[in-house]
Design goal:
- The chain folds into 2 domains: 90 residues, PH-domain like; 56 residues.
- Helix content is 38%, strand content 24%.
- The two termini are 19 Å apart.
Amino acid sequence: MRIEFTFTRGPKYFAVAEPDSRHDTWPLAPAAGFGIATGGLLIVVLSGEIRALIAGGLLALAGLALLVVRRLVIRTDKGVASGFLTPRTWLLTDERLESSTELSTARYSWSSFRSVVVVDQAYLLVRPGPTVIDVPRSPLTEEQDAEFAAFLAGLGFAGAAK
């Protein structure tokens, strides 16, 4: 087998491995709203009792803290590193997988992989550590995709045939 192609991965390509932080932190928003609303309600309704004021104030502060944490997480989410968005060439042979950019080349023998996960856009080859090396599927022809899947299955990776 010898399959060689060059492909530039965009940010959407990495959506499976790197979800959007707005989506990831969404559960914090209703929890924050609940804390703020409940705390405010305790302060207003039971304003005569010092324990209610303290509990309400703490709940409202906790809710605000959750919103601040969510905002900080969203602001610090840098997305995919620019190095992953440069053109890359993959070479798949019977002996190894090779992945190259203008600046570097990485070579992996097939025996260095533990498992393979196949998703719509890529073959995800898992190494010890765990480290995941991806092989995009969209640049492959149907024949190349079938050949590579059969090759991986022949190596004993049961999840390769899709």
